[in-house]
Design goal:
This protein has about 240 residues and is of the alpha/beta class. The protein has helices spanning about 60-65, 100-110, 115, 120-125, 195-210, 225; strands at about 1-10, 15-25, 30, 50-55, 75-80, 95-100, 130, 135-140, 140-145, 155-160, 165-170, 215. The protein binds zinc ion. Zinc ion (ZN) binds near residues 83, 85 and 219.
Length: about 240
């Protein structure tokens, strides 16, 4: 089992990374998040309002191809949530099963949130979803953890590696290192429910402590220097 972390772009305002992850396990490949839409590569140069700086070749489709993995080899895509920096490029993996929390999917479909509703074309798959109800084992060694607050039905992922500490992909439940203390955690502009954010932060940090897991924060400005990022990997 191997875990790769892809840097697929940066948030322009802060320089914080936009990440996606690939777990290779026996003959399964599992993507966790799919980054910003590849058709927007380079768009930041012409559009001052473009939120994400992404260059050609940074997108998740290019990075997966660089590993020699074909789109058809991706068996699962785990969707932490449908914000556009996490849920672009779904169309590139037509054979994968997409796994999302039922609560997130139901809520997204209401279009109650303009930021999720506006990008519906990215995530509204005609092929549908495999829905999870709360914490679930996706495959042996891959646990999905409900971590609402940033949005309803956000999910994080615990990966148990054979040769090193488990890795907790917190995504936007704990986007930065400074957000890992549930009591003092900053509530960011896109966090929808402060109380739920704190409860999920506590749930994940308690779990990380119990499992001796390393947390990979979703958008931490320093994280990419610290971790074994692509073309390195965790094993
Ligand atoms: Zn995000």
């Amino acid at each position: 089992m191997e875990l790769y972390v892809f840097l697929t772009g940066r948030i322009r305002m802060t320089g914080a990374p936009v990440l996606a992850y690939l777990v290779r396990i026996d003959n399964h490949c599992v993507l966790v998040d799919t980054g910003y839409p590849r058709e927007r590569a380079g768009a930041y140069r012409d559009n001052p309002r473009e939120l994400i700086e992404m260059n050609a070749g940074d997108d998740v489709v290019s990075q997966v191809a660089r590993l020699g993995i074909k789109a058809a080899d991706i068996g699962y895509v785990v969707c932490t949530h449908f914000d556009i920096d996490h849920a672009g490029n779904y169309d590139a993996f037509p054979q994968a099963r997409f796994v999302v929390q039922r609560r997130h999917l139901d809520w997204a479909r209401t279009e109650e949130s303009p930021r999720i509703g506006q990008v519906r074309a990215q995530w509204d798959r005609s092929a549908g979803y495999q829905v999870a109800d709360g914490d679930t084992t996706l495959l042996p060694g891959i646990e999905l953890l409900e971590s609402s607050g940033h949005v309803p039905g956000h999910q994080s992922v615990l990966v148990r590696l054979p040769g090193s500490r488990p890795v907790l992909l917190a995504a936007d439940a704990i986007p930065t290192r400074e957000a890992q203390n549930s009591d003092t955690r900053p509530i960011y502009p896109f966090d929808m429910d402060a109380e739920a954010v704190r409860a999920s932060t506590r749930k994940l940090t308690d779990l990380a402590r119990a499992e001796n897991a390393r947390i990979i924060y979703g958008h931490d400005p320093g994280i990419y220097q610290e971790i074994t990022a692509f073309p390195g990997r965790f094993t």
